[in-house]
Design a protein that fits this description.
The chain has about 525 residues and is of the alpha/beta class. The chain is built from 18 helices and 19 strands. Bound molecules: acetamide and zinc ion (ZN). Zinc ion (ZN) binds next to helix 10.
């Protein structure tokens, strides 16, 4: 008699408590929405709550049911009808593509989006409210839309490999922060991780290395003696991951590095190099002198054949062609490269506009035109600026912001990913205490959060900044747990800069982070403790 009564009273308490605090209630969403207007009352979420969805919105509805299943099991979604109540999803052509408006009344939660992606972002906000308020969601109206069209994060699966399931968890994390691009670094000196049917040697021979460096690449010459690999994704696995990302409104941008960071490919196919001598899949980290030959026609054929399969796998408009850190010593000595330089009439024009750098620009330009014939565009690291770029190329600024600023001033689009704010392989605290080995540098949560991505740009130049991205190189990151701890919580700081650039809310970032941390725990995502401990 007593126990059921107690349980009933407890249930009532849970329902009544939110009413008691409603006057002071804040919605602690991250990233910060454009506007939040609090109104009276609560919507009660129960296992009887159902989503009612307009045409084309089944996917966001199903994702939401999955996302909140552990907190509250909801009924399977149904088509939107005249019936009242529930969580109601629709499109509104007056909203911009990724925008949404959410209205929460005691009777219903109504989310309208400019596209299914907008509805999905509204549901991600609602998911945060469910974590925070459980079954009693405070009534309010939220208007929201992102500042940057490109909100990216990078993942290096070469230096250390991550499984299909781990890539999917990574995508889940990006989606919860309203990111919409994964830059997937698939090839480098230390491995080739994408199946290319035309060249089976790449995954047979270049997806493994004999051993791996122990310690920091600037200080160590000791290796572990343990073969690493074979590790790669089959084309079927890639299609599965691309589909999984699309269901979360994330476009995957594959990166195929050329002509540098390609020693693994040269191991499998020695004719890609200038000298054609046998090189190993690299076991060290850093910048290798072994690069693809820029003179021989066979290099161009290879790249076009590889990219033909890549664009078949990835619907992304943009393909990342790498282009960073290309030492030119092999090219300076190579008869094929020098013959091509003569044929093209390239001359040293300045310290950066050398004939060899212009040969790299020729390679980039040819690949750009090949991709353009297939309706695709290139992104390259800011190094591609050295020998000159076409106006169509998008530049990813990593050596500080100067490459992106230069690009924007010359009418090229740029993605800002400067090391000093966006390299999440850098240390998170100044003391580095307890962090384990990292590449170097210092990028704390606060530093990311305080970054002004428009610094150095006039109002006219700012629209050339297509978006912002963090880069997470995995030389010193050997497990998915560690990868998550490098990503979180810094990704949350970046997400607010990407989404809410000029309406960041530093006054509440700490309390909002405490709420978002509950989502991380709910999802079982690992995160670094430093920000929460007050260490920077
Ligand atoms: C880079 O970090 N080498 C782009
Ligand atoms: Zn050459």
């Amino acid at each position: 008699m007593f126990r059921p009564l107690l349980r009933w009273m407890t249930a009532l308490w849970v329902v009544l408590i939110p009413y008691a605090v409603s006057a002071t209630e804040q919605l602690l969403l991250l990233p910060q929405p454009t506007s939040i207007t609090m109104t009276e009352g609560h919507f009660h979420l129960t296992p009887a709550t159902r989503l009612y969805v307009a045409d084309g919105l089944w996917n966001p509805a199903e994702r939401f049911v999955e996302d909140v299943a552990e907190m509250i099991p909801l009924k399977a979604p149904r088509s939107l009808t005249r019936r009242e109540g529930g969580i109601r999803l629709s499109l509104d052509s007056h909203l911009s593509e990724e925008a949404y408006r959410m209205e929460i009344t005691p009777q219903a939660i109504t989310i309208a989006g400019g596209s299914p992606a907008g509805v999905y972002y509204g549901l991600q906000s609602l998911r945060q409210l469910v974590v925070q308020h459980r079954n009693a969601i405070p009534c309010c109206t939220i208007e929201d839309c992102p500042n940057f069209a490109y909100r990216g994060a990078h993942m290096d699966v070469v230096r250390h490999f991550f499984t299909v399931e781990e890539v999917k968890r990574y995508l889940d994390i990006l989606a919860a922060h309203k990111l919409n691009r994964l830059h997937w670094h698939l090839t480098d000196d230390q491995g080739w991780r994408i199946e290319i049917k035309r060249y089976p040697e790449l995954t047979e021979r270049a997806s493994k290395r004999n051993e791996t460096l122990i310690g920091h690449c600037l200080r160590s010459t000791t290796y572990d003696g343990i073969p690493y690999g074979p590790y790669f994704y089959t084309q079927e696995e890639i299609r599965d991951i691309v589909r999984y990302a699309a269901e979360r409104y994330i476009t995957i941008i594959p990166e195929i590095e050329m002509p540098s960071h390609a020693q693994a490919a040269l191991h499998a196919l020695p004719w890609l190099g200038c000298e054609e001598q046998q090189v190993e899949v690299w076991t060290h980290w850093g910048v290798s002198p072994e690069v693809m030959c820029g003179g021989k026609e066979t290099t161009y054929e290879f790249l076009e054949n590889v990219l033909t399969e890549v664009i078949d796998l990835f619907p992304s408009e943009y393909i990342h062609i790498g282009g960073d850190e290309c030492p030119k010593e092999r090219w300076e000595e190579c008869e094929h490269c020098q013959a091509r330089i003569r044929e093209l009439g390239l001359k040293d024009e300045s310290e950066t506009r050398t004939a060899e750098n212009q040969l790299q620009s020729y390679l980039t330009g040819r690949i750009e035109r090949f991709l353009a014939k297939h309706g695709r565009r290139i992104i390259g690291w800011d190094d591609i600026l050295a020998g000159g770029v076409s106006p169509e190329a998008t530049v990813m600024s990593w050596q500080g912001s100067k490459g992106g600023i230069y690009a924007a001033k010359h009418g090229n689009h740029a993605i800002m990913a400067p090391m000093d704010y966006c390299y999440f392989d850098f240390y998170q605290t100044k003391s580095q205490e307890g962090e384990g080995l990292a590449i170097g540098g210092w990028v704390s949560f606060e530093k990311v959060y305080g970054w002004n991505p428009y610094e150095g740009l006039t109002a006219e130049e700012q629209p050339y900044i297509y978006g912002l991205q963090c880069n997470l190189w995995s030389e010193y990151i050997t497990s998915f747990d560690h990868l998550q701890r490098m990503l979180l919580p810094r990704l949350a700081a970046l997400a607010e800069v990407q989404w809410a650039t000029d309406r960041r809310n530093p006054a509440t970032i700490r309390t909002r982070m405490e709420q978002l941390r509950r989502l991380y725990e709910q999802c079982g995502w690992s995160y670094a403790p430093y920000y929460f401990e007050g260490r920077k």
